[in-house]
Amino acid sequence: MVLYCLGISRVCPLRWGLYFERFLTEQRGDCPDIDIDICGARRDELLGYVYERWDAEHVAMIGSFVTMHARLAIREVAKVFGIPPDEVNHFTKRLPHRPVREILQAIRQLPECRNLPIGEEPWQTILQVALRLDDAPRHLSIHPCGTVISARPLTNLVPLERATKGIVVTQYDMNAIEDLGLIKMDLLGQRGLTTMALALDNIGKKEGQEVTEVKDRNDVAADGVTPCPRARTINFDAIPENDPATCDVVAAGRTIGIFQIESPAMRSMLRMMKARTLEEIAIALAIIRPGAAEYGSKELFVKRLTGKEPVVYAHESLESILGDTRGVCIYQEQVMKIAQAIGDMSLAEADLVRRSTVKYSGRADRERLRSKFEKAAGMMGLTNEKRQEAWMMVEKFAGFGFCKAHAATYADTSYRMAYLKTHHTAEFLAAMCSAGAGFYHVSAYVEEAKRWGIEVRLPSVNRSRMEYTAEEEIEDGTHRNISHDAKRPPQKAAATKVMRIGLMQVKGLRVETIVAIVRAREAKGAFRSLEDFLARVSAERDEIEALIKCGAFDEVCGMTRAAMLWQWNLLQAGGREGAFPPPQTQERAGQARPLQGERAAVAGVLFAEMEEDDAIGMALREINAPDYTREQKLRYEREVLEVCVSGHPLDFLPRNGETWSDELPGLRGKRVTLCGWVVTYRHVGTKNYRNMMFVTLEDQRGLFEVILFPDVYDKFGGLVYETRSMRVTGVVMEGEHINGERMERLGG
Questions:
Q1: CB neighbours (10 Å) of residue 368?
Q2: Are 221 and 501 in contact (CB under 8 A)?
Q3: In this structure, how many other beta carbons lie within 10 angstroms of the beta carbon of residue 169?
Q4: Is 596's pLDDT higher than 90?
Q5: Is residue 581 scored above 60 in pLDDT?
Q6: Residue-level pLDDT at 674
Q7: What's the DSSP call for residue 690?
């Protein structure tokens, strides 16, 4: 309540029914954690403040020990054997994240591992050596978010060392720190909050606020890629809670890119629940957790949600506790309330019940609490069978129940981000791509922008910033870059929303080069030709080629990409790449495209050093190489940008009447065949210790998920490592998932 009143937390304990005893009780023997989520791009600034405020002698990051698992052990041993890095990567990327001792069994079971040369040298010896390194410590690392602050100098309490980054780290891990009674604070850099901050920056630019561009490395996060958003206090209350359009988006599961609720399972759950309120979003967040599926809670909830099973309660007193969740216990706070209502326990004892099934209390505590619970339940009139059922519910669900305070906080943040996506789509998705915060690869969010009617454009040396940006194009053809024209008043004419790919997406383009491009553009205006660019920006050969291939010079040179790249390479071969005089012509500031007929002049500058009697040189000056085909452009975009702007990867692959992803809702229970591009996949173990796989694919109309159960996974699971374009056959299940029966490579 104090945190809520101070504005540190947005979750009202009275509205959500939260208990102080869930945080701290007299019976609790260890210190509670303090978790603070902050913008990931600015986390280092907060750490710097903490060190300065409480003094470096009293603050340290908590250490963690990196131990040898299968991939790491094999990689380290292979290095010693002198195996080339590419060969090591090809071998290890197919291995599961398991202990080394399980790796041989996994290799025999997993289809993607069957062709690995484990019986050949040197891999046979490498595996034998790696097995001896199982769980051995490799090095001391830093806990992702754990920080310890002590009243006394830490040198009197724990051993310390200075990490490579220069910060002080404890040589004890978090468990030892807690055993010493020290307070552990988790200062977690949350990329979802970075997305929100960048989105608000983009919206502010549209409304005429001052623009801050990346001008040096200090404007980039510690990861060297993510731009730092402007420091701000976010007023969450400015976003209305029950906005109809936002509620429609959430209920329809159109939540790709939204914090915590964008996975295929989450979107399916939101659609089934038709979730429109924060409470319903919180339930979906809690029920989708792995523990709920493992203990059958998710399955039971879905059956009751869809009317396949009636809602029943072990005792009528449980209806007020479990009514919102259809008689299923999903929150830890519900476990505590049941123990209090039926077991006649205090909330402090109820918290011990919750903790006794995890790791904190001993067997004696558990038996004492069970005896008290059953005695009190008997006094309420429950039969022995009902008493056992009620206790099993408490004991079973306490082990995996999700903290309601966490679910409420996540739901609140998710809803606010859904509002931004609904009403400021281009600005939000541009921020999403810039932050790199999502469940999927950035290419999935580029395709999502297209599905939301946003025109996606290639990077441009004259228009792009480091990050992705939102632009507008007025109906009369006037182009407005929101980022660059932020000081102008907002346009009132109808405009087409545009998202521009950021220069950060160009593979191999250094931050220093991006900063140089932005500074040169600010100093002397837009680039007027390739020569102008080379005279003002120091860039490496590979960087120039990448910019040409991905279309970043299309608006500048008035030449085809093929001609530009060919002439650039020819000039490189002649050793004259540094001889670029300043451009001879002057154009209006901001004009990006050369005038018609200037192509010959451009070629003339490129080959200015050639003698007039050089017939070959004269012929080269007249060459006008044809432009790339759309298929070639897409190939280069995938190669250089890892996203496709000019089309979709499946556009040029054969179709034969296959179903589209947006047709799945009307085909439940039917066998369908779809064409898809693999976005992501993950392995899951079954209760019978077999393996299955969830594969997320997309076509031009949307995303869909294919579930490969063990037998099918055994046949086709290895295909995701060989190709990304597939034809999939299966039966449409509840939630529009596909029960996969067959997968094959698409297009040969």
A1: 14
A2: no
A3: 22
A4: no
A5: no
A6: 96
A7: -
Give the DSSP letter of residue 37: E
Encoded tokens for 121: 């040298």
Q: Among 445, 436, 407, 418, which Cα is nearest to 195's?
A: 436
Provide the 3-class DSSP secondary structure of residue 244. Answer: helix
Phi then psi for residue 547, to 5 deg, are -65, -40
Residue written as token pair 């969830």? 694
Structural domain boundaries in the chain: 69-135, 661-745
Nearest to 743 by CA among 700, 685, 702, 693: 693
Least trusted range by pLDDT, from 582-586, 612-616, 671-675, 697-701: 582-586
Please give the Cα distance from 552 to 529 (Å, whole number): 12
Give CA–CA dist 597/520, Å, rounded.
Answer: 26
Report how far residue 633's alpha carbon sits from residue 746's, in angstroms, rounded to the nearest whole number.
20
In angstroms, the CA 545 to CA 571 distance is: 12
Contacts of 341 (CB under 8 A, 6+ apart): 317, 318, 321
pLDDT value at position 603? 42
The answer to whether residues 337 and 321 touch, using CB atoms and an 8 Å cutoff, is yes
Judged against a pLDDT cut of 70, whether residue 730 lies above it is answered with: yes
| CATH 1.10.10 is held by the domain 69-135 | yes
DSSP per residue, 439-489 = SS-HHHHHHHHHHTTPEEE---TTT--SS-EEEEEETTS-EEETTTTTTSP
The DSSP bridge partners found for residue 149 are: 59, 183
Residue with tokens 């706070």: 333
Residue whose structure tokens are 């080394």? 100
Band (pLDDT 50/70/90 cuts) for residue 600 is very low
Q: Is the pLDDT of residue 485 over 50?
A: no
62 burial via Cβ count (<10 Å: 0-12, 13-18, 19+): buried
Radius of gyration of the chain (CA): 30
- Distance between CA atoms of residues 555 and 644, nearest Å: 18
**Which DSSP category does 643 fall into?**
S
- The Cα 511–Cα 534 span in angstroms is 17
Residue 727, both tokens:
């034809």
CB 692 within 8 A of CB 707: yes
Q: Which residues pair with 706 in a beta bridge?
A: 695, 738
User: In sequence order, what are the residues at sequence separation of 6 or more whose Cβ sits closer than 8 angstroms to the Cβ of residue 335?
Assistant: 329, 350, 353, 354, 394, 397, 398, 401
Distances (CA, A) of 185 to 143, 167, 178, 478: 11, 16, 11, 51
Instruction: Please give the distance of CA 467 from its chain centroid, rounded to a whole number.
Output: 16
Per-residue pLDDT tens for 683-725?
Answer: 887 777 788 999 999 999 999 999 999 999 999 999 998 899 9
More confident residue, 238 or 551: 551
Which of 576, 593, 583, 607 minimizes the C-alpha distance to 533? 583
| β-bridge partners, 469 | 500
What are the helix (H) ranges across 316-441?
319-322, 332-343, 347-356, 363-379, 384-398, 404-423, 425-435
7-59 pLDDT, tens per residue? 878 889 999 988 887 777 776 766 777 788 888 888 888 988 998 999 889 99
Count CB-CB contacts under 10 A for residue 295: 16
Q: Helices 244-251 and 264-273, interaxial angle, to 10°? A: 120
Angle 404-423/244-251 helices, nearest 10 degrees? 110
Is residue 169 within 8 Å of 163, Cβ to Cβ?
Answer: yes
With pLDDT > 70 as the criterion, what percentage of the chain qualifies?
Answer: 85
Q: Starting at the edge strand that comes first in sequence, how are the strands of the sheet with 168-170 ordered? A: 34-39, 183-190, 137-149, 59-67, 168-170, 160-162
CATH of 661-745, one of 3.20.10.10, 1.10.10.10, 3.20.20.70, 2.40.50.140: 2.40.50.140
Q: What is the DSSP letter of 503?
A: G
